[in-house]
């Protein structure tokens, strides 16, 4: 006699049969004649809400993560200003490279970015300094203050005026739908601000200008020096100085308004200094040439002329007759 196939057991729910079925659970069913109609019970997991303390802790920790580059910039600024690197390194740049692996420009970017964030924090006048330092996740007007979370988001704003920085950030947050905007969004908003306030480049070739190095680490050591415009760009000029050519933004230039004859005199002086200068010179000689490069008149005194003559006879590179 043929044996009957074993009887399949009916699937049961993980919930008790004695309990009433809820909206999120139902008993498993299985029809041997039609397996495709099987029903499997899925019990919805209940998500535990954060307590008020946990929510506050989460916001606090998130803000600490967001403030990482800001705190780094503030610390670097203090290390630089107080020269706390002087016991081991002669320059701030060497210290940052050896200690943190930062290339020359990076620590200055972090310092500039921290300055921008400090300015953006001022948009919340009801915040106290203690609130900012002790509880960075402070709720303001029932909303968290949207602040930058990376140096790249801040970089396009570093050359703007404080009020322009605040305007750019507010607009960028709006474009991002009330969230932290990307660096690209910030850059686009900055470009629109620049186009609105664009000042035409009125400099001309051969014009003698003074270099204004304030707030521009790339021009360190060039403040007060003069240069001759060798190329006129849209928002900058290429300026020839005693040790080479530099591209300088318009706000870092100031014309001496010399007459054409005076500009020609300065061009001749620049040519003479350039023929003497090289990176292999002794530091004292470089310093003397730099002092001549800061002369704020269209001529050399008798002593300066003699000094340049001596340097020319000693160091001048060969000139084709």
From TrEMBL:
Disordered as annotated region, ranges: 1-36
Biased amino acid composition, Polar residues: 12-27
Chain intervals with Basic residues compositional bias: 1-11
Record's keyword terms, sorted: Plasmid
Protein name: Site-specific DNA-cytosine methylase
Origin species: Nostoc cf. commune SO-36
The organism's taxonomic lineage, starting at the top: Bacteria, Bacillati, Cyanobacteriota, Cyanophyceae, Nostocales
């Amino acid at each position: 006699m043929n044996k009957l196939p074993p009887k399949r057991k009916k699937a049961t729910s993980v919930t008790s049969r004695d309990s009433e079925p809820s909206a999120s659970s139902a008993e498993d069913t299985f029809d041997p004649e039609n397996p495709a109609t099987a029903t499997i019970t899925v019990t919805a997991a209940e998500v535990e809400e954060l307590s008020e303390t946990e929510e506050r802790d989460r916001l606090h920790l998130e803000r600490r993560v967001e403030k990482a580059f800001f705190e780094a910039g503030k610390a670097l600024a203090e290390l630089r200003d107080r020269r706390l690197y002087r016991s081991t390194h002669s320059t701030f740049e060497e210290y940052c490279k050896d200690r943190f692996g930062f290339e020359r420009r990076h620590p200055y970017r972090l310092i500039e970015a921290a300055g921008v964030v400090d300015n953006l924090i001022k948009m919340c006048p009801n915040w106290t300094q203690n609130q900012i330092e002790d509880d960075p996740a402070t709720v303001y007007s029932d909303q968290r203050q949207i602040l930058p979370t990376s140096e790249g988001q801040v970089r396009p704003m570093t050359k703007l005026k404080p009020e322009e920085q605040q305007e750019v950030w507010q607009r960028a947050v709006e474009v991002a739908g009330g969230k932290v905007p990307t660096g690209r969004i910030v850059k686009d908003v900055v470009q629109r601000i620049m186009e609105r306030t664009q000042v035409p480049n009125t400099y001309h070739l051969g014009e003698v200008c003074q270099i204004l190095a304030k707030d521009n680490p790339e021009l360190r050591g060039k403040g007060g020096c003069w240069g001759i415009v060798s190329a006129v760009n849209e928002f900058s000029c290429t300026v020839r100085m005693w040790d080479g050519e530099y591209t300088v933004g318009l706000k870092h230039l100031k014309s001496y308004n010399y007459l054409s004859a005076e500009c020609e005199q300065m061009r001749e002086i620049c040519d003479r200094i350039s023929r003497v200068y090289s990176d292999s010179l002794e530091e004292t000689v470089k310093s003397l040439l730099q002092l001549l490069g800061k002369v704020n008149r269209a001529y050399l005194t008798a002593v300066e002329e003699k000094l340049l003559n001596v340097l020319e006879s000693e160091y001048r590179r060969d000139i084709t007759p």
